Structure to design on (279 residues):
């Protein structure tokens, strides 16, 4: 029954948004992690979302109904590190300063991350609502014909 | 005279199936709201209902385990949506608000079909039991 696959689809999105929230939390937590070389510095991380086309085509029995109708969930393809320039700061008294007196700060933009976090949590809520509505429909369908 | 249960239920089981498919498609739109390059789709309900009634399925034969298993469930009823906003920057055409409203509306229509079906069933029940 294809309403069950709506549950699968909503679930896939919930886990994807979860990954997004996780990376945002990690970015915000490390926004002030100072390092003494560009290589060691934390770089902002972002997940890359993609439709679950591959699974939809190859899918096992669980995905069979999804495969048939062309409805697709979402998956996280991977997590990329931002290649924006790092923030170099001249602070010769800082314990982490390199021989030229510079420290390196992550390229995390706190505003951007906050906006990202809101967007992710709203999307998560939408998906929960989706699963909830589907649950109601399913339970009514299961009670079909039983006189109410 | 024989009673045909299928005829007794009328069009409503087919409508239910078509609405179920639409729920699935709208759900994948909502879910892919943040996926770059995803294009929103919707069901042409008239065509979907006709396909559900005629049950036109085509399954491709698989002679090797690595072949794709493909089932075409009626054709031409899934269409891409015309976006309200021409360019969102990442090629995604999903408008979450629109899709959410459509999903809720579709859920209501699904429940309407269910109610019709229930009343048909109780009608047949009455006819069978005579009470």
């Amino acid at each position: 029954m294809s309403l069950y696959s709506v549950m699968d689809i909503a679930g896939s999105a919930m886990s994807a948004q979860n990954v997004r929230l996780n990376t945002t939390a990690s970015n915000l937590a490390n926004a002030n992690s100072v390092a003494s070389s560009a290589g060691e510095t934390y770089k902002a991380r972002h997940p890359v979302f993609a439709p679950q086309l591959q699974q939809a085509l190859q899918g096992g029995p669980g995905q069979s109904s999804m495969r048939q109708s062309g409805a697709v969930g979402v998956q996280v393809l991977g997590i990329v590190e931002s290649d924006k320039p790092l923030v170099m700061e001249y602070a010769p008294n800082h314990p982490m300063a390199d021989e030229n007196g510079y420290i390196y700060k992550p390229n995390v933009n706190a505003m951007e991350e906050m906006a990202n976090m809101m967007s992710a949590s709203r999307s998560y809520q939408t998906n929960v609502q989706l699963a909830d509505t589907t649950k109601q429909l399913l339970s009514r369908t299961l009670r079909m014909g039983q006189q109410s | 005279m024989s009673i045909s249960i299928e005829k007794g239920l009328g069009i409503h089981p087919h409508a239910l199936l078509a609405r179920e498919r639409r729920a699935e498609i709208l759900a994948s739109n909502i879910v892919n709201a943040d996926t770059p390059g995803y294009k929103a789709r919707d069901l042409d309900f008239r065509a979907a209902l006709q396909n559900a009634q005629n049950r036109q399925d085509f399954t491709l034969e698989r002679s090797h385990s690595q072949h794709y298993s493909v089932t075409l469930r009626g054709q031409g009823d899934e269409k891409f949506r015309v976006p309200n906003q021409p360019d969102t920057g990442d090629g995604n055409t999903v408008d979450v608000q629109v899709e959410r409203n459509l999903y809720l509306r579709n859920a209501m229509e699904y429940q309407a079909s269910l109610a019709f079906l229930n009343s048909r069933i109780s009608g047949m029940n009455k006819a069978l039991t005579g009470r």
Notes: Residues 5-129 of chain B form one domain.
